[in-house]
Write a structure and sequence with these properties.
The protein has about 350 residues and is α/β, with parallel strands linked by helices. The chain folds into two domains: about 1-105 and about 260-355, 3-Layer(aba) Sandwich (Isopropylmalate Dehydrogenase), CATH 3.40.718.10; about 130-255, Isopropylmalate Dehydrogenase (3-Layer(aba) Sandwich), CATH 3.40.718. Helix content is about 40%, strand content about 20%. The chain has helices at about 15-35, 45-50, 60-65, 90-100, 125, 165-180, 195-210, 225-230, 245-255, 295-310, 315-325, 345-355, and strands spanning about 1-10, 35-40, 70-75, 105-110, 130-135, 145-150, 155-160, 185-190, 215-220, 240, 265-270, 275-280, 330, 340. A ten-stranded mixed beta sheet has the order 2-1-3-12-11-4-5-10-8-9, with helices on both faces. The protein has a two-stranded antiparallel sheet with strand order 6-7. The chain has a two-stranded parallel sheet with strand order 13-14. α1 (about 15-35) links the parallel β1 (about 1-10) and β2. α1 packs across α11 (about 315-325) and α10 (about 295-310) runs antiparallel to α11. The protein is globular. The model has no long low-confidence stretch (mean pLDDT about 95). Bound molecules: 3-isopropylmalic acid and magnesium ion.
Length: about 350
């Protein structure tokens, strides 16, 4: 039988619980569509700091590189918050993005039909729903630019640098154009070209590439305006392509519009088909170990894995359909509404797996 090798980083907080249910669902999808998985566990984040003294042990990078793709729960927690920057769990996340060349971060923000009431935005603005894809550059810009401390006029100062090269912009812009082509045909490139030189180069580069995609309608927006437009009229957006830091901020905003951070998946892609898949929510240490976390964002990330890395679109669609189905009758605490059966992490995972089989 066709076997896929998945590196699995359970991580911290609720990470292990939600990954467990996702594996249950992946196995169910494999059983139905004729493939199976070998899972290769590895450590990153707080648990890696506890065991190996660093947030990203070299062995983890090796295991991930040898796998077809990576499934990640979540990392981080208060326990490690006082460590110096390079030893924090977040450094593991940035390190693995760089080590695996995961330059394209796809963050779909959409409203699942049964959860329409959950958005904090007025229903007349949401209309028939919302389906935005944020394409965030993930291995460049201010996250990875030169940084340091210095003295300015005798006072302590610190700096971080935003720098983008043309090839870096080109490769992420192409992901944006291709994505728009497969979806609604609209791409909005978000920058701060009225102020930043790096944004002016970004815009020039995107404009040049547009000639290769005559079927895509390209627009531009300054990031401050985009933050406003996402709340004023989110349905105007199809695909947004933007830098690492703007994408970090706008994808959180876009996800909140959908009303349920516990539902949103993400893919971080390298060249070729390799990717790392994780929910966009964090490790939620406050509810860890209680069996009440919502596993659906991780389960939907696994659907993205099947779609983007393993080329198993039917299995991916089956997971999404199953999630929509179970949401009609049951809810975890974070998305609970009266009239539904309140379930925990395991029951939700089982229900999705059963709906697939
Ligand atoms: C995200 C997170 C990370 C980021 C943090 C945890 C380093 O906010 O994936 O959006 O800023 O990229
Ligand atoms: Mg973020």
């Amino acid at each position: 039988m066709k076997t896929y090798n998945l590196a699995v980083i359970r991580g911290d907080g609720i990470g292990p619980e939600i990954v467990e249910e996702t594996i249950r669902v992946l196995d169910a999808a494999g059983a139905r569509f004729g493939f199976r998985f070998d899972y290769h566990p590895c450590l990153m984040g707080g648990c890696a700091i506890d065991v190996a003294g660093v947030p990203l042990p070299p062995e983890t990078v090796e295991i991930c590189k040898a796998a077809d793709s990576v499934l990640l729960g979540a990392v981080g927690g208060e326990k490690w918050d006082t460590l110096p920057g390079h030893l924090r769990p977040e450094a593991g996340l940035l390190g693995i993005r760089a080590a695996l060349g995961l330059y394209a971060n796809l963050r779909p923000a959409r409203i699942f039909a049964p959860l329409k009431g959950a958005s904090p935005i007025k229903s007349e603005i949401i209309g028939e729903g919302l389906d935005i894809m944020v394409v965030r550059e993930l291995t460049g810009g201010i996250y990875f630019g030169e940084r340091g401390r210095k003295e300015v006029n005798g006072a302590a100062a610190a700096y971080d640098t935003e720098c983008y090269s043309v090839p870096e912009v080109e490769r992420i812009a192409r992901v944006g154009f291709e994505m728009a082509r497969k979806r609604g045909g609209k791409l909005c490139s978000v920058d701060k070209a009225n102020v930043l030189e790096s944004s002016r180069l970004w815009r020039e580069t995107v404009t040049r590439l547009a000639a290769d995609y005559p079927d895509v309608t390209l627009s531009y927006m300054y990031v401050d305006n985009c933050a406003m437009q996402l709340v004023r009229n989110p349905r105007q957006f199809d695909v947004i392509v933007t830098s690492n830091i703007f994408g970090d901020i706008l994808s959180d905003e876009a996800s909140m519009i959908s009303g349920s951070i516990g539902m949103l998946a993400s893919a971080s892609l390298a060249r070729g088909s390799f990717g790392l898949y994780e929910p966009i929510h964090g490790s939620a240490p406050d509810i860890a170990g209680q069996g009440i976390a919502n596993p659906l964002a991780t389960i939907l990330s696994a659907a993205m894995l099947l779609q983007y890395s393993l080329n198993e679109p039917a299995a991916a669609a089956a997971i999404e359909t199953a999630v929509n189905e179970v949401l009609k009758t049951m809810r975890t605490a974070d998305i609970f509404e009266p009239g539904y059966r309140k379930v925990g992490t395991t029951d939700m995972g089982r229900a999705v797996a059963d709906a697939i089989s």
